[in-house]
Amino acid sequence: MNVPNKITLSRIFLIPIFILLLSIPFNWGTWDIGETSLPVSDFIAALLFILAAATDWVDGHYARKHNLVTNLGKFLDPLADKLLVSAALILLVEMGMAPAWLVIVIISREFAVTGLRLVAAGEGIVLAAGSMGKLKTATQMVAIAILLLHQFPFSYIGFPFGTVMLYAALFFTIVSGVDYFMKNWHVMRDSK
Q: Which portions of this protein are annotated as coiled-coil regions (predicted)?
């Protein structure tokens, strides 16, 4: 197994730890930040999420730079992203920081695109992520990180930046999903 795939696997292994930090009521105290209190466990979970999200860029960059792109990597990388983002969004709903309907739309888009990729794979076609999909992922990661940090550092000025970014992520999720299906509809149309 090459280095980029090991990095991707490390991202997958961080997800259960991330989930535990936000699911178990650890009483490690809080920090007062701006107009809000940030539980230490949420801060650690946010740092873990940021670390895991950063490995997405690292493994892709390393694989392309050293010509180590593999089929396993093409499978694991988007899977790791979807698992990490879905876990974080569902936990944000549980914490009352994200509306459930919005999370349902985002996760539904991921299922739909994955389904299209599976149909394409059955036809021997590999569908790469486009620039809109990468923008979608970036806005999702930023929104989740800021929400996990209880809007820090924007809590000092009372601006809900994480919430704004979450709605931007929703916009890019829908637009990139529509774009992806429009560009690749021939796969569904021509499948046997």
A: none
Q: pLDDT tens digits for 166-191?
A: 999 999 999 999 998 888 888 777 76
How far apart CA 4 and CA 63 sit, in angstroms, is 6
**The CATH number of the domain where 45 resides is what?**
1.20.120.1760
Go through 103-117 and write b for each residue having 16 or more CB atoms within 10 A of its CB, e for each that does not: beebbebbeebeebb
Question: For residue range 85-111, what is the model confidence (pLDDT) as tens digits?
Answer: 999 999 999 999 999 999 999 999 999
Give me the number of domains the chain comprises: 1
Structural domain of residue 91, as residue ranges? 3-190
Question: Please, which residues have CB within 8 angstroms of residue 147's CB and are 6 or more apart in sequence?
Answer: 92, 97, 98, 162, 163, 166
